[in-house]
Amino acid sequence: MLVSVTMSLLIPPLPRSSKVNATGRLEVAGCDVVELATEFGTPLFIYDEQEIRDRCRAYMEAFSTRSSNFEVIYASKAFSCIAICQLMAAEGLSLDAASGGELYTALTAWFPPEKIFLHGNANTAGELELALRSEVGHIVIDSMDEMMELDRIAARRGRRQQVLLRITPGIEAHTHDFIQTGKLDSKFGFALAEGVALDAVAAAKKAGSLDLVGIHAHIGSQIFSLEPYRQTAARLADFLAAAREKHGFDCRLLDLGGGLGAVYGPDDDPPPVDRLAEAIVSSVEAEMARVELPPPRIAVEPGRSIVANAGLTAYEVETVKTVAGLRNFVAVNGGMSDNLRPMLYGAVYQALIAGRPLAEPTITAAIAGKHCESGDILVNEASLPGPVPGDILVTAATGAYGYSMANNYNGQPRPAVIFVKDGNAQVVIKRESYEDLVHLQEKLE
Ligand code: LLP
Predict the structure, then answer these.
(1) Which CATH number covers residue 335?
(2) Is residue 73 one of the residues assigned to a domain?
(3) Residue where one domain finishes, among candidates 302, 335, 357
(4) Number of domains observed in the structure of the chain
């Protein structure tokens, strides 16, 4: 017990089941991480299944204690695979699919289609067809062109599709510029400014095969402050009042997107889900009362805050070198092919050696990936206890937007993904093989 407390102080972003076991090695959900690396190979994404479930339950409970009319929609872009869709269905969440591919994955998992929300700012006719054919519950319309196209396809299929409009509220959430999505200068959605969103309401109400049930806004990701959510609720309530007055629009569903931050390092302190729910439910209720409209069903779309801290990545250390007078490099057998976040957003990760997580650090080193780019650095400054080739190095909190942004740069097969629970491990995504890398390719004739 004492040991696990020490661990959680040392490495806050690891799953809560993490501890140092009797052999002095890192253990997650009862599984020794060095043994997992040996059995399943590296790089390896490891998810603590119970941690994911607990985080889903925290969302469901936080909202259900405050509202009887709510929906928690897992944003599968954070991590999409058949197993996680099954898990979300079992926990009673709905699902946000950001593309035909994520939709197909959810359908393959037999995720109930009526609980799927299809998103996307550039959906193709094929993606919209798939959504209609599979009878997804809601499609979140991002543009006038998409609205017209969807109306046409739905009419052809004789279906009336429930839709939401994605609104860009012009709120600046304090996060990295690339993951800020609700500000005015955005490729996403209908702006509140200049009546663009109001015109979209009028058009959607006219569209014969669309049933406009609500609106959606997503203001950004890795957000630590609740204030932007309250501001969004206020702005959207004003908008809904105008939409009611001008176009007789009754909003039955208000989806405030995802965005709650995860813990990547000791300085990260996102508000607990309970406080997010409190802020959202109370501000939506108060703002709707202010504009004298009935409170709609409330939806949120968390991705990162459900899976980031449930996941970690195990690599093998390949080389260790010192550039005299400059710095040390510890190079591992993965990198920007399995975690693009340090390179794209300057994201900072914590690293440890799974075989001796509590050993005194002896060096500070950059953790380098194996790719042909100087920028392929996973961690700029990690304090490690005498790393040597063959050590299993873990980066914590890689559960969101790690595997989902993985790629095959330099012909690197994508890693395997396992779920661990009660001392057992199950592969949920197999490791790609070299054959997989070339199996879609044809020889020149
Ligand atoms: N809903 C919508 C419409 C979204 O665009 C997003 C994320 C979410 C929900 C989920 O947000 P979350 O709860 O995960 O913050 N690749 C970036 C993150 C991009 C997020 C895009 N949208 C990263 O690795 O930080």
Answers:
(1) 2.40.37.10
(2) no
(3) 302
(4) 2
Domain membership of residue 240 as a residue range: 119-302
Pair 287, 389 in one domain: no
Please write the tens of the pLDDT for every residue from 147-199: 999 999 999 999 999 999 999 998 877 665 555 555 567 788 999 988 999 99
- Whether 372 is a known active-site residue: answer yes
Contacts of 22 (CB under 8 A, 6+ apart): none
Instruction: Give the largest Cα separation in the chain, rounded.
Output: 71
Query: Which residue, 314, 317, 282, is CA-closest to 298?
Result: 282
**418 close to 400: Cβ distance less than 8 angstroms:** no
Give the atom of ligand 1 at the shortest distance from the alpha carbon of 140.
Answer: 3
How far, in Å, from the CA of 180 to the mean position of ligand 1? 9
Closest ligand 1 atom to 261 CA: 15
Residue 260 is given by DSSP the state B
Same domain, 199 and 271: yes
pTM of the predicted protein model: 0.96
CB-ligand 1 contact for 276 (6 Å cutoff): no
Ligand 1 close to Cβ of residue 102 (< 6 A): no
